[in-house]
TrEMBL record:
Phylogenetic classification of the source organism: Eukaryota, Viridiplantae, Streptophyta, Embryophyta, Tracheophyta
Entries under CDD domains matching the protein: AKR_Tas-like
UniProt cross-references to SUPFAM superfamilies, sorted A to Z: NAD(P)-linked oxidoreductase
Residue ranges constituting the NADP-dependent oxidoreductase domain according to the UniProt record: 76-406
GO molecular function, one term: oxidoreductase activity
PANTHER family noted in UniProt: NAD(P)-LINKED OXIDOREDUCTASE SUPERFAMILY PROTEIN, NADH-SPECIFIC METHYLGLYOXAL REDUCTASE-RELATED
Signal sequence bounds: none
InterPro entries listed in its UniProt record: AKR (IPR020471), AKR_Detox_Biosynth (IPR050523), NAD(P)_OxRdtase_dom_sf (IPR036812), NADP_OxRdtase_dom (IPR023210)
The protein, known as: NADP-dependent oxidoreductase domain-containing protein
Length: 417
């Protein structure tokens, strides 16, 4: 009865009771009823406030500390590798501005961008970003970039080189050129794009012992970064396309030699590419172990997980990256990957989600993901990608995750050729 009285005073019996209690202030029952109503009102008020806070949190991007650094980064990182190839400078600036306005505070670039890398366009991405940053508060933007790893094909990156290495001279030359193109005095996060030593890369999954080669010692690489940090040109360092062995060696060398520790790892991670990271890098990077934050790239596997490539004859498929650049990321377009993608698209529909919400929501919710790198060549794509982080239920429902795991058991990393 008390709840009814508190909610609705129009019922005659409730009104009579209240009148009687009001006429007798000494009534302990009246005091009890009055106190109960106040407490109920307070509870409802707190619930309403709590609901509003949860709704607001659901509609906004979240932020996380990156590894052992002082960088607090948005859960979305803007990838920029299409700037200067698929995107004009104006389009790039529009994409950057919209992302910034939505709360994205970290952007990812690299000295080899745009992709596909070639001498004629190399560095355009940085220049587009640099000119955009001139009108923005530099301390509100976290710039993550990458120095190239071992390469015999990308010698155009250096003034005089027969091969690109990750040694002191290469690192310093790379950073000076990056700073110039970006028109900035410092880099927030400098990563090694891929290792100096041999490792299986970009679709290769098996280590070939016959490809082993001498490489620059881990401590020498860290010493070169230390100099740049001491000069104020770099704040923090990280790795990319790295293995458990590499992460452990970098962390060990830093600890033993008193050198800067890596705070991040930028590796491919998605519904179609899980094993490489989940098998043991999750343990290595755990906060209680090496505390290295994952910046997950290709969460949509080059756009494949949107389902747009399922119909090879569609206009959007023909205009998209995997068809514009034959052979590029072909592992994502292989038959088994397509089959798995089709199943994930159906799974999303089953649970009332878009394929983008499913794919990005999955990566977003992984406890080891510090931030997810998204890219877009159109504003519509960008809006859909950013909106997916706030429109998809947080976290994804248990039944959704159960269905994902069922599919994963059938299609374990179907991009392996």
């Amino acid at each position: 009865m008390f709840v009814g009285v508190c909610k609705n005073r129009n019922f005659s019996m409730q009104q009579m009771a209240l009148s009687a209690f009001a006429a007798n202030p000494s009534s302990s029952y009246s005091n009890t009823l009055s106190g109960y109503c106040v407490r109920q009102s307070e509870r409802w008020h707190k619930r309403r406030i709590g609901s509003r806070i949860r709704a607001q949190a659901q509609s906004q991007l979240q932020y996380r500390k990156l590894g052992d650094s002082d960088l607090v980064i948005s859960e979305v990182t803007l990838g920029t590798m299409t700037f200067g190839e698929q995107n004009t400078e104006k389009e790039a600036h529009d994409i950057l501005s919209y992302s910034f306005d939505q709360g994205v505070n970290i952007l990812d670039t690299a000295e080899i961008y745009p992709v596909p890398p070639k001498k004629e366009t190399q560095g355009r991405t940085d220049m587009y970003i640099g000119r955009w940053m001139q009108s923005k508060p530099r301390d509100k933007i976290i710039v993550a970039t990458k120095v190239a790893g071992y390469s015999e094909r990308s010698t155009f990156l250096r003034d005089n080189a027969k091969v690109v290495r990750v040694d002191a001279d290469n690192i310093k030359e790379s950073v000076e050129k990056i700073l110039s193109r970006l028109s900035t005095d410092y880099i927030d996060l400098l990563q090694i794009h891929w290792p100096d030593r041999y490792v299986p890369l970009f679709g290769e999954y098996s280590y070939n012992p016959t490809k082993w080669r001498p490489s620059v010692p881990f401590e020498d690489q860290l010493r070169a970064f230390q100099e740049l940090i001491d000069e104020g040109k770099v704040r923090y360092i990280g790795v990319s396309n790295e293995t458990s062995y590499g992460v452990m060696e970098f962390v060990h060398a830093a600890k033993v030699q008193g050198l800067p520790k890596i705070v991040s790892i930028q590796n491919s991670y998605s519904l179609l590419v899980r094993c490489h990271f989940e098998v043991d890098l999750v343990e290595v990077c755990h906060p209680n172990n090496c505390n290295v934050g994952l910046l997950a790239y290709s969460p949509l596997t080059g756009g494949v997980l949107t389902g747009k490539y399922l119909d090879a004859n569609s206009g959007i498929s023909k205009r998209s990256r995997l068809n514009l650049f034959p052979g590029y990321m072909e592992r994502y377009n292989a038959s088994l990957a397509k089959e798995a993608t089709n199943e994930y698209v159906k799974l999303a529909k089953k649970h009332g989600l878009t394929p983008v919400q499913l794919a990005l929501g999955f990566v977003r919710d992984r406890p080891f993901t510090a931030s997810t790198i998204i890219g877009a060549t159109t504003m519509d794509q960008l809006k859909e990608n950013i909106d997916a982080f706030t429109s998809a239920p947080r976290p994804l429902a248990p039944e959704v995750l159960d269905d994902i795991e069922s599919l994963f058991k059938r299609y374990k990393d179907p991009t392996i050729l």
